[in-house]
Amino acid sequence: MNMEAFVLGCGGMMPLPYRHLTSVLLRREGDLFLFDGGEGTQVSLKRLNLKWKKINAIFVSHTHADHVTGLPGILMLSSQVDRDEPLYIYGPPKIAEYIETSRKVLDMYINYPIIVQEITAPCLCYEGDGFYIRAFPLKHTKTCVGYTLEELDRPGEFNPEKARELQVPCGPLWSKLQSGEIVEASDGSLVHPEQVMGSRRSGRKFSYVTDTQYLPSIANEVKGSDLLICEGMFTEEFEDQAAEKKHMTSKQAATIAKDANVDKMALIHYSPRYTDSELKLLLSEAQTVFPKTMLTKDRMIFDIPFKD
User: Fold this and answer.
1) Residue 23 domain-assigned?
2) Could you tell me the CA-to-CA distances from 212 to 31, 145, 251 in Å, in that order?
3) Do 186 and 137 fall into the same domain?
4) CB neighbours (10 Å) of residue 224?
């Protein structure tokens, strides 16, 4: 089962000719989840040839303009295609007002259900087949939340050789063992699933954190993530400015990644003061704390494989 993260935009505050505003699309098999929708989101969706009309749900961190101004266009475009499934939108207070006001002012033609749910973090805001998405509190100049998508543990691998040794014939009985049922072998003995199944295997975890001052509690929320996409807006030179605006330096983001023991971290939401060539300053400072730090760029794709 594939899981991929598509960076649709990596910039903060204002769009640049070479850097759209922050937005990430996560694809897990047939499910598509959009995290924030800054200006330019539609452009990257089109350039990556992603089936944006299939987006199941949108998760908004907060209602500052650089994270939501791309949403009205997505809502309107979705009415130009055959869509019957509802679109769910989750976010902190004011997201419902923003969506409703945009629909009225722009006189949107919407021919599918839009279900907006305002959330108070921490909370479990979305559940799917074998996974869930959880929101947790951040600290910004207005209410802001981070998100994690976490898969449930998977069953261990089935051992056909062991099943044959225990005289369980190939067929429906093997399926029952894999489903956790006790079966009767050819010799009349009972065979338990744990006799033919390996240890349970961990699922994957994706975390999205942006627009927050440094909080030690974030590490607990994103602990063990296979991929953490995290704001690293400033270098240490502007730590005071970051604190004043309730943002993070790349080194603070790296501290979270290290404390959370994540597999890898990708920085996002760069200040427009940095040109693309200057982003290496953010990267080098972060890597002094967490070497497995990377920079995101618009339309970059991250594969998130199983660990075992």
Assistant:
1) yes
2) 28, 9, 14
3) no
4) 16
Give me the number of domains the chain comprises.
2
SS3 label, residue 258? helix
Q: Based on the domain organization, do 113 and 135 belong to the same domain? A: yes
Annotate 184-206 with b (16+ C-beta within 10 A) or e (fewer). Answer: eeeeeeebebeebbeeeebbbbb
- Banded model confidence at residue 86, pLDDT cuts 50, 70, 90: very high
Tokens of 165: 């040794």
pLDDT computed for residue 305 by the predictor: 94
- Of residues 99 and 109, which shows the higher confidence score? 99
- Res. 195 pLDDT band, cuts 50 70 90: confident
Query: Same domain for 94 and 169?
Result: no
Instruction: Judge if 207 and 232 occupy the same domain.
Output: yes
Q: What residues form DSSP beta bridges with 229?
A: 208, 266
Please give the mean pLDDT across all residues of the chain.
92
Residues classed as catalytic: 66
Q: What pLDDT sits at residue 244?
A: 95
Tell me the pTM: 0.89
Which residue intervals of 116-230 are DSSP H helices?
160-165, 172-178, 217-221
The enclosing domain of 279 has a CATH number of: 3.60.15.10
